[in-house]
């Protein structure tokens, strides 16, 4: 044989995978987009979990724009999976069911519950209901007082014409049952019938405290699935702007920061909030019915270490009902909240009230603005939202089934992620805490007829956005049918440079940064991050500066101990595109987690080091605020100033 015939000749079919492999390598080498070079501590794997959509063009980022890059976070990342546990189901009232239930207008006995109260002779059951109402507080009196009327007897069923009632029952002269029920009677000032409903959209805002976007997917997949079926737009770059609930919701409700609110209408913690320009006042001027309500109202956004309102802020104000019902029949107290009132879980009572409100407004053809906030389910525990998943999913499903969303804009929001606990000591926990969830559902007819507004909304789902933007968006909903293509384009063209708040119905610039969005570096998630040795010189310097800063805050409060640095838990250096100033100076941001004594408080601070080129000089300052990331419990009972409570160890 010739030499050529002795050589092995591979079948042609084997050349096909080799050819495909070469084509793939060529494509990756030539066409693949350049990715940001970040440290391994910052790279988190792309999501493979409920509710996420892979996008190969984003290369492991949620947000990838000229001005901001936020990485994907796996809900079951190895760094945090140890903190994901199952919470026990709540058993209210020792698992004894309620004796009465309510609908939109009346109370009814629950026959199946009679046996649990050992009622064998119904004629011996005597019940009455007492109407109670909010009392206008006196000067420096807390906004939590109510007054009761007389107890009106009834048997089995009764129609209710008032908002709040307390039910009391005796059996054979023995007190056996107390319960509270809330209703939504149509008030005389709201009886105007609206014949032209096409010019108005209802706005319903439902909040769930302390749940990050990632944790919502992790804990409440059924709710997320229902929202997806409703074609909700989920905003992946919703970045908080401050520490806790109050300063993150004030921008939504007023368009102001907490400091700006203090400069205009709330000059001290002893003041009330009546003179502040809340967005519900704008809706009220357009003859909308307005409603505001929170569960766990004792620590509500206007009540915790504050004095609330003189005149109730909205047409329907649920806080007095929640406060009184928790005070009298609250049970299953855990951490900061009552989980139950009587035989019902608190968060379910709030959702039932919201459903009553929207149904009553629809029946009477009255446009409405409702803002409701739930804390009892989620405020204190990372894993408790899982217990409410099915109920929230059913609630949102009922809004669809009852036709509420045909002319209602639904916003489902949070204020921040969980702010304490083991997960907060991790890098992912830090990121999650700064990225709450935000979903928005528009009526289908509106989506179809306002293409640009809806298109911009969807594109903004992958832009950096803030609570200030949400305020501008809600303002646009005062006149939603004006959001034509010409109007939106004209507004964009007439803008003079960057603004703090954009409506989500207009396209947010792709070069938007945390600085232009008014997000302090401490809260910014658009950063590269590099871990630094805990014993490095910069760790010592920033730790010492943070301790001095805290002690300066505590200066003048003799009841608080002077703090000292116990140790540094971790420190990261961040870099952004805005570090260099005129080429003559620059700054570096360091986020440090440190522990203090006495009290073993664990804090997180972002310290900025300003450096002057060529002069070998520098100085430090704190960006944002210093966060407390473990619970302080009774350590600060001596302190009423709510900003200082985080840092004070009472002596």
TrEMBL record:
InterPro entries: Alkaline_phosphatase_core_sf, DUF229. GO terms for cellular component: extracellular space. The chain crosses the membrane at residues 12-33. SUPFAM superfamilies: Alkaline phosphatase-like (SSF53649). This is Uncharacterized protein. Keywords: Membrane, Transmembrane, Transmembrane helix.
């Amino acid at each position: 044989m010739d030499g050529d015939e002795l050589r092995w000749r591979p079948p042609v079919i084997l050349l096909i995978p080799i050819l495909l492999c070469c084509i793939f390598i060529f494509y990756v080498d030539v066409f693949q987009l350049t990715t940001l070079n970040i440290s391994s501590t910052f790279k988190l794997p792309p999501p493979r979990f409920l509710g996420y959509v892979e996008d190969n063009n984003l290369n492991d980022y949620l947000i990838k724009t000229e001005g901001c890059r936020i990485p994907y976070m796996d809900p079951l990342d190895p760094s945090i999976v140890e903190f994901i546990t199952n919470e026990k189901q709540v058993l209210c009232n020792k698992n004894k069911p309620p004796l009465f239930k309510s609908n939109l207008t009346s109370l009814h006995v629950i026959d199946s519950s009679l046996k649990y109260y050992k009622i064998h002779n119904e004629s011996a059951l005597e019940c009455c209901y007492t109407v109670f109402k909010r009392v206008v507080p006196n000067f420096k009196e807390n906004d939590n007082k109510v007054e009761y009327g007389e107890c009106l007897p009834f048997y089995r069923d009764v129609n209710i014409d008032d908002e709040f009632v307390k039910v009391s029952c005796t059996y054979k002269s023995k007190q056996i049952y107390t319960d509270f029920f809330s209703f939504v009677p149509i008030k005389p000032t709201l009886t105007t019938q609206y014949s032209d409903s096409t010019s108005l959209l209802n706005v319903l805002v439902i909040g769930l405290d302390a749940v990050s976007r990632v944790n919502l997917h992790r804990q409440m997949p059924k709710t997320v699935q229902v929202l997806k079926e409703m074609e909700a737009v989920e905003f992946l770059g919703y970045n908080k702007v401050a520490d806790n609930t109050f300063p993150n919701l004030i921008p939504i409700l007023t368009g102001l920061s907490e400091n700006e609110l203090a400069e205009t209408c709330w000059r001290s913690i002893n003041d009330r909030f009546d003179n502040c320009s809340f967005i519900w006042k704008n809706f009220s001027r357009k003859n909308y019915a307005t409603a505001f309500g929170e569960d766990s109202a004792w620590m509500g956004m206007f009540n915790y270490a504050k004095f609330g309102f003189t005149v109730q802020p909205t047409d329907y104000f649920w806080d007095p009902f929640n406060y009184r019902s928790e005070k009298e029949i609250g049970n299953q107290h855990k951490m900061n909240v009552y989980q139950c009132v009587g035989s019902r879980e608190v968060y379910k009572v709030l959702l039932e009230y919201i459903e009553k409100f929207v149904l009553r407004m629809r029946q009477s053809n009255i446009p409405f603005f409702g803002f409701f906030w739930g804390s009892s389910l989620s405020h204190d525990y990372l894993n408790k939202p899982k217990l409410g998943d099915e109920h929230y999913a059913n609630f949102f499903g009922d809004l669809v089934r009852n036709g509420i969303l045909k002319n209602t804009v639904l916003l489902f929001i949070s204020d921040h992620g969980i702010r304490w606990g083991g997960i907060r000591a991790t890098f992912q926990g830090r990121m999650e805490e700064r990225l709450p969830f935000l979903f928005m559902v528009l009526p289908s007819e509106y989506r179809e007829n306002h293409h640009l507004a809806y298109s911009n909304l969807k594109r903004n789902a992958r832009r950096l956005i803030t609570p200030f933007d949400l305020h501008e968006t809600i303002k646009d909903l005062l006149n939603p049918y004006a959001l034509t293509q010409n109007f939106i384009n004209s507004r964009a063209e007439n803008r003079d440079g960057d603004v703090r708040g954009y409506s989500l119905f207009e396209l947010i610039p792709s070069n938007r940064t945390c600085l232009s969005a008014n997000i302090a570096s401490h809260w910014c998630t658009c950063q590269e991050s590099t871990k630094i040795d805990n014993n490095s010189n910069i760790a010592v310097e920033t730790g010492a500066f943070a301790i001095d800063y805290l002690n300066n805050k505590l200066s003048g409060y003799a009841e608080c101990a002077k703090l000292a640095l116990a140790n540094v838990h971790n420190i990261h250096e961040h870099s952004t595109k805005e570090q260099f100033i005129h080429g003559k100076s620059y700054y570096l941001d360091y986020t440090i987690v440190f522990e203090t004594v006495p009290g073993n408080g664990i804090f997180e601070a972002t310290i900025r080091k300003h450096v002057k080129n060529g002069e070998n000089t520098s100085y430090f300052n704190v960006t944002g605020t210093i966060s407390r990331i473990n619970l302080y419990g009774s350590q600060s009972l001596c302190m009423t100033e709510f900003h200082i409570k985080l840092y004070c160890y009472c002596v």
